[in-house]
Design a protein that fits this description.
The protein has about 250 residues and is α/β, with parallel strands linked by helices. The chain has helices at about 15-30, 45-55, 80-85, 95-100, 105-115, 130-135, 140-150, 175-195, 195-200, 215-220, 235-245; strands spanning about 5-10, 35-40, 60, 90, 120-125, 160-165, 205-210, 225-230. The chain is globular. The structure holds phosphoenolpyruvate. Phosphoenolpyruvate binds near residues 9, 164, 229 and 230.
Length: about 250
């Protein structure tokens, strides 16, 4: 049986005091939560949020990392620095990284392997653009992103996948639970082909894309949807907590 895993990606939002306030509200209100939880604040907020979530049932995440351990990489943040702050999980391949900052599968794969080699859990995001969906390529795009993103990865025990159709992120448009579940099932098959059925049955596949308190339960009821990666609705305890306790 897979545990549900609900993650909040705070993106480029909040000051330190706002982040502390949200983290405190979440630790208090999710204390009795039954699932696995994560918050991923901006790099500059991690040190503020870390002591608040420490010892709680909320993991500390980062939204990205550099492809190299350290060196001359102006503006980048390394896995060593994230580890030093107590980060446990790194979100990689988010659609904003892929499409706005032009990260390709090769770069994302390098980051995935680096993060895993330093003991982090990785949430690898995948998902198709609207034109790819309309051209009937949603499965093929997700398959490519999984195959290339995990190239050379032998152990899936610290890998989580997040299916986030790009057209559903921050747009208010959610994939129907049926459409999302169909892609999740397909991705699970791909994982099965690469790693065997036991691994495919175990891997957590989150759904992301305008998840809200109103649609969380219907999405989570689907066989292959094991949690959520939440953007906009993760910015307030009033909307994240009901999703987390769907
Ligand atoms: C995300 O950025 O991962 C996301 C799913 O955003 P939103 O929930 O706002 O669509």
């Amino acid at each position: 049986m897979r545990d549900y895993y609900i993650a909040g990606n705070w993106k480029m939002h909040k000051t330190r005091s706002e982040a502390a306030e949200l983290a405190k509200a979440l630790t208090a209100q999710l204390k009795d939560g039954k699932h696995k939880y994560l918050v991923a604040p901006s790099f500059t907020l991690i040190e503020t949020v870390a002591p608040i979530v420490k010892g709680s049932n909320i993991r500390l995440g980062a939204q990205n990392c550099a492809q190299d351990e350290q060196g001359a990489h102006t503006g980048e943040v390394s896995v060593l620095q994230l580890k030093d702050l107590g980060v446990e999980t790194i979100i990689l391949g988010h659609s904003e990284r892929r499409h706005v900052y032009k990260e390709d599968d090769g770069l994302i794969n390098k980051k995935v392997k680096l993060a895993l080699s330093h003991g982090f859990e990785v949430i690898l995001c995948i998902g198709e653009l609207l034109e790819e969906r309309d051209a009937g390529k949603a499965e093929a795009v997700c398959e490519r992103q999984v195959v290339k993103g995990l190239e050379g990865v032998k152990d899936l025990s610290r890998v989580v996948l997040a299916y986030e159709p790009v057209w559903a992120i921050g747009t208010g448009k959610t994939a129907t639970p049926e459409d999302a579940d169909a892609i999740h099932a397909y991705v699970r098959q791909v994982v099965g082909r690469l790693y065997g059925n036991a691994e495919a049955e175990k891997i957590i596949i989150q759904y992301g894309g305008s998840v809200k308190p109103e649609n969380a339960a219907q999405l989570m009821a689907k066989e292959n949807i094991d949690g959520a990666l939440v953007g906009g609705a993760a910015l307030k305890a009033d909307s994240f907590v009901p999703i987390a306790k769907f």
